[in-house]
Amino acid sequence: MFDAEQMIRTPAAWLDASGEESEIVMSSRVRVARNLMSHRFAHVCDNEELSEILAKVGAAAGAVDTFANGRTIAMGELSTLDRQFLLERHLVSREFLFNSTNRGLWLNRAEDVSLMINEEDHLRMQAFASGLDIASAHEKVSRLDDALGPRLDIAFSDRFGYLTACPTNVGTGLRVSVLIHLPGLVHSREINKLLESVGKLNHTIRGFFGEGSDMMGNFFQLSNSTTLGATEEDIVKRLKEMAVKVVNFERKARDVLFGKARSLLEDKVWRAYGLLRYARSVSTKEALSLVSAVRLGVGVGIIRDVSVGTLNHLLVYIHPAHLQKMRGRTMDAQERDVVRAEFIRGELGR
Amino acid sequence: MFDAEQMIRTPAAWLDASGEESEIVMSSRVRVARNLMSHRFAHVCDNEELSEILAKVGAAAGAVDTFANGRTIAMGELSTLDRQFLLERHLVSREFLFNSTNRGLWLNRAEDVSLMINEEDHLRMQAFASGLDIASAHEKVSRLDDALGPRLDIAFSDRFGYLTACPTNVGTGLRVSVLIHLPGLVHSREINKLLESVGKLNHTIRGFFGEGSDMMGNFFQLSNSTTLGATEEDIVKRLKEMAVKVVNFERKARDVLFGKARSLLEDKVWRAYGLLRYARSVSTKEALSLVSAVRLGVGVGIIRDVSVGTLNHLLVYIHPAHLQKMRGRTMDAQERDVVRAEFIRGELGR
After folding, report:
1. What residues contact A14, with CB distance under 8 A and at least 6 apart?
2. Which class for B295: exposed (0-12), middle (13-18), buried (19 or more C-beta within 10 A)?
3. How many CB contacts within 8 angstroms connect chain A with chain B?
4. Residue B275 and residue A280: Cβ atoms within 8 Å?
């Protein structure tokens, strides 16, 4: 039985801001795409075939150490709210919201390693680490890959590498990404320059909250854009280098802001804190923006008695399904805004 | 010697919100205009004549009990900042800012009774009381009038009553006013209806902070518009009745707001409080608006640990000259905004 109420009581460890550069980098994520040779890609399968794949991969997952004492979730048995909850926790993709029959999710106990079955690929393994720590996320997901691989007939071509449903994943099947907080670059209007130059260097950076170009909360996801023609180690190394560059740009932008417009910045940061401490109704969008400003304030040392971990935690828990799961009932948008404000006050008032 | 720094340490008693209806009525004021028969009206006097009037009225003022242990201020000796300071304290009129030579101000110790010499009229006596208490302000100013009158050759016509420089003051020379906080009527958009109907009933109501029609902070001044053809007692009685009506309208508007849009109101009030508690830079205009929202919140019981007196005090002390006098130096607008925010945080954090 899936129990969101229980999961909610133990926030994912990768939110705790214990990793390197965690004032700027929220988390590192490594994802690996694999498929079974004996089956068609998931998007052309009927339910029967999806069910076979789910059973086969599930049997393998059940036998590996990673998932001992973890959770096995049959997506088809979940309510829309539960699926939304898992999406907000970064554990499933948006695709799983709408297609859930014969889809499965396996989680380890610490909630930092997971396996989606029958998403775009038959297997999508992912691992998280706190801050800028791609190596450790890579190690975790590789351990799972090494354990699962021998138990399954993984589709691999000597010429192309791992075969995947979408050509952009062919080769290593590896996507490495960091979730990065760039308020300095957004405020100094240098962000567009950065987005352009990153694109030219075979990486992708896009707004994280909100779809498309919307830079809600100034959070961005930086990831590799190709998986073919490079080794896993190269991909990981290059993304790390790129992330370090972006972190340094952001740090410089923060220094300039703090140096040239200190009282303006202090005012902006403390106002955001004041609103979060006292507002009685806050939308998700406004909350992201206010938490972002406070997170910048903590990063540059304006605010000292709030931890980055608390703010990371808020960035997940202020979303609609989390609020409803915490209160144990469905709520309309207006009621959620009130409960969101109440929750934030409680977290910051500790 | 005029010493603003000393005055600033003892806020005027009439700000303390001890009077009736003080959640809605900040203060009551009664002003009396008198002129000397032996001199021309002040606006046609040369400096020599103004100086004679100043000496004559000053001698009389020096002999009455009211001003024992009070202050005597020669406006011409003050800096612009000091004059601005007295204006912000509601002790002198805007006219005194620009014409200060041979103008004088006498204050009693409690700063609730004052006399301007050579303003529009030779004598302008005024008294304040906290909340809705016109009777006590009237009594205080009458006592001064009764003490000064016999010592001076006051211009009085059996046909017109007291003669004044402006015809609107002829008769009793009496202007009664209350400073009234009407956020409920402003938010419910009923304020214009009120402004119109008050005008039809021989009273005047206008925005208090900011000139003309600007309703900054939702503070209004309600006063009588004629002084001729009615006894002092009638004028006082009618204004009191009108004020009670306005207070009841405001109370009803607050009840409706609180009943129909409680969570919206709570959010607005607490956000204003959060900004005042944490902002690092606040303009006078924004501060008035935020203090107004918090004052409404205290009035309807949303906020319980802030006193109306503290907010009344802020409404005077956040103004530019007060901030500069408190810090003991001149400051530009940007610096004042920072100091204003700091001062407000200090007052609310007590």
Report:
1. A27, A111, A112, A128, A129, A130
2. buried
3. 49
4. no
Q: Residue count of chain A, please give it.
A: 350
pLDDT score for B215 = 59
Q: What mean pLDDT comes out for the span B321-336? A: 96
Write out chain A residues lying below 8 Å of B333, CB-based.
none
Q: Report the alpha-carbon distance of residue A220 to residue A178 in Å, rounded.
A: 8
Token pair listed for B10:
């003892």
* ipTM for this prediction: 0.89
Amino acid at B54: L
What lies within 8 Å, CB to CB, of B328 at 6+ separation is B5
Residue A212 has pLDDT above 80, yes or no: no
Indicate if the pLDDT at residue B317 is higher than 60.
yes
**pLDDT for res A230:** 86
Is the model's pLDDT at A210 over the cut of 60?
A: no
CB burial class (10 A; 0-12, 13-18, 19+) of residue A135?
A: middle
| Residue of A278, A258, A259 whose CA lies nearest to A268 | A258
The whole-angstrom separation of Cα B176 and Cα B222 is 8
> What does pTM read for this prediction?
0.92
Q: How far is A1 from A73, CA to CA, in rounded Å? A: 8
In the block, tokens 């000496």 appear at B55
Topology given in CATH for the domain delimited by A4-255: Creatine Kinase; Chain A, domain 2 (3.30.590)
Model confidence at A213, in pLDDT bands (50, 70, 90)? Answer: very low
pLDDT at B212: 46
Q: Which helix (H) or strand (E) holds B32?
A: strand B25-34
Of B264, B270, B281, the CB nearest to A278: B270
Mutate one of B263, B280, B294 to test the A interface: name it (highest A CB count within 10 A): B280
**B-interface mutation test, from A263, A264, A280, A294, most B Cβ less than 10 A away:** A280
Report pLDDT digits (tens) over B225-284: 877 778 999 999 999 999 999 999 999 999 999 999 899 999 999 999 999 999 999 999
- A279/B281 touch (CB, cutoff 8 Å), yes or no: no
A32: pLDDT strictly greater than 90: yes
Nearest-CB residue to A274 (from B267, B278, B338): B278
Spans of all domains in chain A = 4-255, 261-348
**Which residue carries 């009225």 as its tokens?**
B57
In the chain, the amino acid numbered A244 is: V
Residue A183 has pLDDT above 60, yes or no: yes
Task: Answer whether A278 sits within 8 Å of B264, measured CB to CB.
Answer: no
| Mean pLDDT in residue range A199-227 | 78
Nearest in space to A75 (alpha carbons), one of A161, A172, A2: A2
Taking the mean position of all CA atoms in its chain, how far away is CA B96? Answer: 15
Assigned token pair, B140? 């205080």
Stated length of chain B = 350
Interface touch A274/B275, C-beta < 8 Å: yes
Q: Are strands A123-130 and A25-34 parallel, antiparallel or unpaired?
A: antiparallel
Residues 6+ apart with CB under 8 A from A231: A172
Please enumerate in sequence order all residues whose Cβ is within 8 A of that of B253, keeping only pairs 6 or more positions apart, or say none: B182, B184, B185, B187, B188, B190
Cβ atoms of A115 and A29 closer than 8 Å: no
pLDDT digits (tens, 9 = 90+) for B102-134: 999 999 999 999 999 999 999 999 999 999 999
CB–CB contact B277 A275 (8 Å): no
CB contact under 8 A, A264 and B277: no
pLDDT digits (tens, 9 = 90+) for A100-127: 899 999 999 999 999 999 999 999 999 9
b (16+ CB within 10 A) / e for B51-82: eebbebbbebbeebebbeebbebbbbebeeeb
pLDDT at B291 over 60: yes
pLDDT of residue A215: 59
